[in-house]
Amino acid sequence: MSRIRRLNEIPRKELFTSGHSLCAGCGIPPMVKMALKAIEGDKVVVNATCCLEVATTLYPHTSWLVPWVHNAFENAAATASGIESAMKVLLRKRDGKKYKIIVFGGDGGTFDIGLQSLSGALERGHNFLYVCYDNEAYMNTGIQRSGGTPLGAATTTSPAGRVIPGKPENKKNLMDIVIAHRVSYAATINPAYPTDMWNKFAKASDLLDKNEGPIFFHYYSPCPVGWRMDTALSIEAARLAVQTRLWPVYEVDHGKIIINIKVNKPKPIEEYLKIQGRFRHLLKPENRGVVERLKKYIDNNWNRLLKLAELDSIY
After folding, report:
1. pLDDT digits (tens, 9 = 90+) for 198-242
2. What does the alpha-carbon distance between residue 305 and residue 300 come to, in Å, rounded to a whole number?
3. How far is CA 4 from CA 15, 66, 196, 261, in A?
4. What is the layout of strands, in order, in the sheet containing 68-71?
């Protein structure tokens, strides 16, 4: 595997440049920079409509120094499928160049609007990497709730008040949906654990070389604006998400589940909730029941992962 661990071995060339208009504290830029450095060789990026797209391609400027394709919310995976199929033809008939295809989409364009095209591409077995950066709402269009919004979070379409205490439903388990397609490799990544994230991107690069896609990454992407928190707390929130077991860091390698960050003594979920305005109402006595539901969801999911990790394969 082409794992690069030492700082002086990381490529210096930037393929995702400064000058974009993503917000201070946004979790997206460090992930994109790392992906384009860790995934070796020629690359083409497919980008669903999302914060990343609108903030990096303000006409006539662009932050991308690789071939880049924009498509609508719902069809990023379909676009990537077409590019991969066309590339196969060019390689066969005209000795064309092989590109590694990387798809970036937000939770709205992945959990909800783009789920159908993603499922189709995974089922067909196209050789690309799909990265869902999950900031847990439709941040680009006004902070509306998505299937990725967690239980109790206040958004503009699930406002905390007398009627509901934030979003009344649990977060959709996107990794389970992806794993059900029996992909070769899927993983969760988090900006507070950059070495783990780098190694997973490097592994994805190797698998794409071997035509073992599709590959799926679920990225925890802090959003200070939508989460109503100080911009300096993005990495702290990301770290607490892991340390409270809210966001397990694990991978599924050809059916084998491996928990990469073991959390033997989890921190109270309240430490995570209190630094974000979208959750502060949950700390009121009348909303204690929502917090208990969230704790039960976290515990059940963690214990389920532990049991699955004992198996040789879940496929």
Report:
1. 999 999 999 999 999 999 999 999 999 999 999 999 999 999 999
2. 9
3. 18, 21, 11, 19
4. 68-71, 43-48, 100-106, 129-134, 215-220, 185-189, 250-253, 256-259
Per-residue model confidence as pLDDT tens digits over 119-154: 999 999 999 999 999 999 999 999 999 999 999 999
Please choose, from the candidates 120, 34, 28, 114, the residue with its C-alpha nearest in 3D space to the C-alpha of residue 75: 114
Secondary structure class of 62 (helix, strand, coil): coil
User: Which among 9, 65, 23 has a CA at the least distance from the CA of 42?
Assistant: 65
Domains in the chain, CATH or no CATH each: 7-309 (3.40.50.970)
Closest to 235 measured CA to CA, from 31, 29, 25: 25
Of 236, 226, 219, 203, the C-alpha closest to 28 is 219
Q: Give the model's pLDDT for residue 157.
A: 98
- Helix, strand or coil, per DSSP, at residue 69: strand
> Which tokens is 206 given?
């190797």
pLDDT at 24 over 60: yes
Bridge partners of residue 64, in order along the sequence: 16
Local structure of residue 110 (DSSP, 8 states): I
37-56 exposure pattern, b = at least 16 Cβ within 10 A, e = fewer:
bbbbeebbbbbbbbbbbbbb
Within 13 A of 64's CA, how many CA atoms are on the CB side? 23
Closest residue by Cα to residue 263 from 283, 279, 280, 240: 240
Q: Which pLDDT score, from 0 to 100, does residue 95 have?
A: 79
Q: Shortest CA distance to 200 belongs to which of 47, 308, 39, 76?
A: 39
Structure confidence at residue 188 (pLDDT):
98
